[in-house]
Amino acid sequence: MRPDEVPLVPSFVKTNGDQFVLSDDESQVVKLKGSNFQTPNHPHFFFDRFDFDWVERGMSQVASLGMNCVRQVVGDDQDSHMEALAKYLAVAERYGVRVYLIPGWPHKYAEEGTLDDRENIEFIRRFVELVRDDHRVLAYDLVNEPDWISNDVWQWDQDRATAAHRLRWLRRMAEKLRELDPNHAVSAGATFSYSYWLPEEPFTLESIVDFVDFHYYRRNYRESWPGDEIRRMKSFTDKPIVVGEFGFPTDPSYSIEGEPEHNEELQVEMYARYIRDISAADIVGFLQWALTDCKPGIAHQRTEGTYGILRMDMTWKPVASLIRDSFRAATCWPESVGVRTG
After folding, report:
1. Burial of 312 by CB count in 10 Å (0-12 exposed, 13-18 middle, 19+ buried)?
2. What pTM did the predictor assign?
3. Is the residue at 340 inside a domain?
4. What is the pLDDT of residues 158-215, one digit of tens each?
5. Number of domains composing the chain
6. C-alpha of 295 from chain center
7. How far apart are alpha carbons 276 and 322 in whole angstroms?
8. Helix (H, G, I), strand (E, B), or coil: what is residue 310?
9. Is residue 49 part of a domain?
């Protein structure tokens, strides 16, 4: 069956207890298996240099991996970005893929009442007009890793004033999104799991979101595995939990002291442990980082470019087969719609 013969069911995804369900059939439990979607040549300027042919090839690979969702940052409200997003969503639909959108705010964390704040509100109004009634959109990720302040202050509990400012901004924007769009859930992918309950003042990040999305990289959790973090999070929240990013690089020069040399074989070993933990925890699922490697010198850190489960030419690394076979998201959309493994 060709992708364009299996359109997505026109139903939104909503939270129900600690799981996702379909809005028109709450007995249909949603399990996510997905990827952070980026082009090898322009990962951080996706909609500035929109490559329709590459999106088509990439979505085909996503479907071949048995994935049913992707995470994608969208630029500001330039007309060209909105036009590109419409084309992007059309391709995603043909492959049975829903899109977890990160709005590209013109002015993140702007002070309330300022010109920058008003521009943010106008941006989100325009943005939501395009996607509010679109079932191809999975949910909103307010901001990628708002708890990372800087490389020197890398956890917002170390700077309570900045944390408080960002938490207030995140709550205002979450409330605005819900006012404008009642159809899509809202989260904020955090660098660290504990950023959902620390700090507690003026309120926690957990209290703002509809579901909890945290990121797991071994370099940030040297003493724990995903299962440890998920068990800890379940003691603080009864909301759905998603691992919005996790991954492992294959660049040997990025090897960490005390661990084996990084390579494609070690990537398989680490992914096997990650996915085993996620499966056993019965959470909503995951979106791994990232679909493809990046061109050397483009990524914001030199070694960020080898986290792909596909190489730059889209050939599969060994870990791709593991992902395809070890976690099935067949209950996300009805069996006849949107979930394929080959």
Report:
1. middle
2. 0.93
3. no
4. 999 999 999 999 999 999 999 999 999 999 999 999 999 999 999 999 999 999 999 9
5. 1
6. 21
7. 11
8. strand
9. yes
